[in-house]
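Researcher: Please translate sequence to structure tokens.
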Amino acid sequence: MPQSRYEEILKNIQHLEQQLTQEIEDIIAKKRDQFQYSLERGKVTFNREARKLHELHRTGLFSYLKQSNISYILTAPIIYSGIFPLIILDIFVFIYQQTCFRVYGIPLVSRNDYLIIDRQHLNYLNVIEKFNCIYCGYGNGLIAYVREIFARTEQFWCPIKHAKRNPSTHQYEYNFIDYGDVHVYEQKLASLRNDLRNLQKNK
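Model: Translation complete:
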């Protein structure tokens, strides 16, 4: 594919992503009205009617356990044990970017932008369901946060595309240097590092 065509498609994708983001924000605003809740400074508040409806539809703890598949209960400790490596990873990447990113001049990744934990405010969930939602929100948010940190690290140290296509690439890789292009690598490495340092300004 010619580079000019590639850049044209990439530009179209970025434009569509912006449109999609705006559309999602509009839908969320309508859903807040529909389901009667507000969001202020990260705090979710439901009105009285919505809270009553939620409580009416909450499954009691005993009924929930009674209805659960026994295999789900037996495998739960394996799932929950993942909290330990997640916490270690969380601590590690905090130290990682607080030290390395400051040395390299790379803008820090905001943890709060990725770790969104709010489903425990839904009163139609019982205590087990709320815990599960907190756990999944933490795990998936942390992985997304870590990926952003390592994506920025990759652009700083090794901004080269792979020979084999990755089906789930991060946003920075589109601008990476082609695999095997030694001349462009020598010319463009400093430029890509500067782009990364100016990330906050460009946003």
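Researcher: Any highlights?
Model: Residues 35-202 form one domain.
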